[in-house]
Amino acid sequence: MLEIKGLEVKLEEEDKQILKGVDLSVEAGKVHAIMGPNGSGKSTLSYVLSGKDGYEVTAGSAELEGADLLDMEPEERAAAGLFLAFQYPVEIPGVGNMTFLRTAVNAQRKARGQEELSATEFLKDIRAKAKDLKIDAEMLKRPVNVGFSGGEKKRNEILQMAMLEPKMCILDETDSGLDVDAMKLVADGVNALREAGRGFLVITHYQRLLDHIKPDVVHIMSDGRIVKTGGPELALEVENNGYADIVSEVA
Amino acid sequence: MNALRQAKQEAAASLLDGATLPEAGGWSRAAREDALARLRAMGLPSKRDEYWKFTDPGTLTAREAPKAVTFDHGEPPVFDAIDRLKIVFVDGVFDAEASDDLSLEGIEIARLAETGSADIHWAGDVYGRLEARGQSPVERPLAALNTALAHDGVLIRVSKTPSRPVSLIYHHKDDSSDAMLHHVVKLEKGASFTLLENGPAAARFNKCLEVDVADGAAFHHVRAQGRDHERRAITHMFARLGEESTFKSFTLTVNGKLTRNECIIELTGDNAVAHVAGAALGDGDFVHDDTVFITHDAEDCESRQVFKKVLRNGATGVFQGKILVQPDAQRTDGYQKSQSLLLDGDSQFLAKPELEIYADDVACSHGSTSGAIDEEALFYLRARGIPEGTATDFLTLAFLAEAVEEIEDETLAEEIRGRLEGWLARRRG
Predict the structure, then answer these.
(1) How much is the pTM?
(2) What is the residue extent of each domain of chain B?
(3) Which residues of B fall within a CB distance of 8 Å from A86?
C-alpha cells in the first residue's frame, strides 16, 4: 500500500536534515505504529507524505499503490487515497464544517471520476457517522474546528477520515491532548475503519493509544531513521524502559 | 486665502462654467443654490486634500467622463429573485417602461425630475440639508455638486412599513454617460424600509442618498456595485438617526476602475444604532475607497463599521473611517473594523482609522489589518482533497463572511454570498 524507500528530507528554510533515510512499507489491512522520542522526525514524515510546503526531499521515494506521492499536489494525494489526521487540526473561521466536508468528499470523488454525492446522500452518510463519534448537529454546523475542545477536534478528524474513506490513513499524535474517554472514542472510530483494503500508520509518542488501536507492526524512529521494527511487544518495551535503551542499543 | 484653496475654487468655477441648475423642482431651488454656493466656496477636491491623499479625484472632477464599456458575465442581475418594487434608471435617467408602477402601500414615491413646482414639503426638509450638515468638519464638494445639479432621482417617504423593498436599478448603455442621481428617503416614526440598489449606472456616476430616520424607524440598505470594469463612481450617503432608530447598510463592490463610497451618519437621538458594512473584490485596475464619518451626538448609541476588501493583481483598497463622539454622547459604543486580504504582493491597502472622543464614558475601538491567505488553513483544506483554487476561494469567502453577516435579511445575504462565489469562480476560470 505505502512504500517508502530511503527517504531523506531537509527543511527548505534552513540547512537542516530531518529524515536521514526512512524505509517503511505498510501493507493493506495492517496497522503500523511509529514511536519515537520528540524531534525524531515522526511528524515531518507525515507532513512530507501529505505534501506540506517547507520541506525538500533530497533522496528516496514514497509511493501509494505504486503512484509517486512526492510528485503530487496535496489534493491529488488525498484523492489518491491518502489521509492525514492532524496533530493540530486547523481552525477555519467562516467555513462551516458541513460545507467543508461535503466539498472535500465531492472534490475527491470528482478527481477520481466518480459522481458527486447529492446533498441528501451526503447528509444521511454524515449523520450516521457523526453519531458514532458523538458529534452533534451543532458541531457539524459550526465553522471548522472553531471553538472545539481538543477532544472534539480529534473526533472531527476521525469523522473526516470516515467520510473520505481513504486507503491509507496516517494518524499524527492523535492521542495528544485527549483524556481516557476521548481516546477510547477516537480509537473506536479508527478501529471501525480497519479493513482488509486499508492501511494505517499511527504515529504516537506513548504506548497508551496502542492499547486501543492494536498495531500489527511497531517501528521505533530516532534521529530521522527507523532504528528498530518489531511486533506489538516493542511498544510495551518502550513503555517500560523508555526510548533511551533502544536508541543506544541500536547506536 | 491660500493657494490650494484658490486653485480648487478655480477648478470648481471652471467646471461649473456653462452649467445651469435644473429647471424643475421649484421647492428644491433654494437647496440647489445653497449647494452651488458651498461648492464654489469649497472648490473641487484635490489630491492634496487630507481625505483625498489615497484616492486621486482627477477623473471624478474632470470635465469629461472617461469612457466605460459595460460587460455581461451571463448571470442574471442581483436581487432578480427578490420580490420588490423596481425603479430603473438608464444612464442616469428614469425609465418608466422598465420600472414598476410607483405605488406601494405605506409609502409615497416621486421623481425628483418631475416634482416641478409642486410643494413636496417633506422632501424640502431633507434635500440638500443632510448633505449640507455633512460638509463639516470634512468637505465633500462632489456631494454639493450633486445636490446642485442632479436632475433625476427618487423621493421616498415611508409612513408605514411597506410589504416589499424598493429596488433602484442603474443600467448603463452609453459608453460615455456621465450621470448624477440624488435620492431622498424619509422614514416616519416607527416605520421600517428596505432599499436595494444595483447596476453599473454610467461611465461616471455621482450619486447622493439622503436618509432621514425618525424615532423608532429602521432603514435597511443593500447595494451591489458591479458589472463594469471601467466605471468610476463617487457616492455619498448622508443619514440622520432619531431616537431608538436603526440604520443598516451593506455594499458589495466588484470591479470598477474607481469607486469611492462615502457614508456620513449622525446619531442624534438616544439609543440609535448604525451599522455600515462593505465587501469589495478587486482584480487589477481597481481602486476602492470607503470613507466613513460617524458622529455620536446622543447617549447610548451604537455604531459599527465592518469593511473587508479582497485585492489582487495590483488592486488598491482605501479605508478612511472616523468615529466622532461629542461631549454629551455618554455610553457610546463605537466599533470599526477594516481588513484586507491581499492575494499577491502587488496589491495594497491604505487605511486611516480615526477616533475623536470628547465624552468620558464610552467604549470605542478599531482594528485594521492586512494579510495574506493563511497557509496552514490552505494546506488543511488541500490535504482533504480540496483543490488549491477552491480552497483559496473558501478562505476568501470566510474572510468576507463577517461583513456579509451584517445583512439582517437572510435571503438578501444569500443573494450577496452567491455573487461573491460567482465572482471568485469566474476569476478561477
Answers:
(1) 0.90
(2) 3-269, 373-429
(3) 380, 383
